[in-house]
Amino acid sequence: MAQQDTDQQHAGVLPVDDEGYVVDTESPEERETAWRERGTSRPITVVGNPVLHKECADVTEFGEELRQLVADMFASQRTAEGVGLAANQIGVGLKVFVYDCPDDEGARHVGVVCNPKLVDLPAERRRLDDSNEGCLSVPTAYAPLARPDYAEVTGQDERGNPVKVRGTGYFARCLQHETDHLYGYLYIDRLSKRDRKDALRQMAENEPRYPVVAND
User: Annotated region Disordered: where (predicted)?
Assistant: First the structure.
């Protein structure tokens, strides 16, 4: 088997558990490295760039071009020291995000979701967590934002297979945050006017630690 094929096998197509959810905590470092080393880091688009403020197109082609995009996203995420990245954050208007994120128990989750949809939770399962949230597309800014502390996302993997991903705590926040991106929402869009203004002030007063695309 060619080396490239081996890398792709390690990087993608996750197993599932007895309930049908992806097992994204096995060999996370190996899989992230396999993706990232095939990719090229790209600068991050920031708030105000039109690609961030409209719904992305569905992924319909699950070939090498998509897998190269995913590799570039993992490389870009590592450069920016993020835990999740949506395609429109590197200027590509497709519904795909990647993640390399710990949950509140310290387990590291690494994976890819195309065409994600958040599963509506019954009221009894909606416990809110109002921790701080930040975004690579709003660099250096943070604000508390209440989100459910458990989330489920359905979608497809990078080869078009159906997937279900679930997470708690910080990882649940990541799944919700990245799905929002692909439908044209930044976390600051969910803040009060006052908190949004403060987040934009934080961004204006500080320099990002990674390359960004300047808005013309």
Answer: 1-38
